[in-house]
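Annex B. Sample input.
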Amino acid sequence: MAGDDPITPDAFAALQARAKQQSRKAQAYYTVMHEVRGILGSDDAANVWMNEAQPALGGRTAAEAVGEGREDEVLAYVRTLKK
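Annex B, continued. Sample output.
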């Protein structure tokens, strides 16, 4: 797409859909991070946990699982850690 060409309605709709999906993933990630931070006590510890392979998540990291749309599964697992 050249800088002077107007964006087509279809291209604009595709950009909007992609932005909405990325926003949803970011919100899901931060929701999980908030839960984990509450358990571990710091952003640094939560970040480390989010990027460690978790056997309960099939060996995936929580960040990967959230990126795959499995945030409900990750949150359910995190909430078992509170007990």
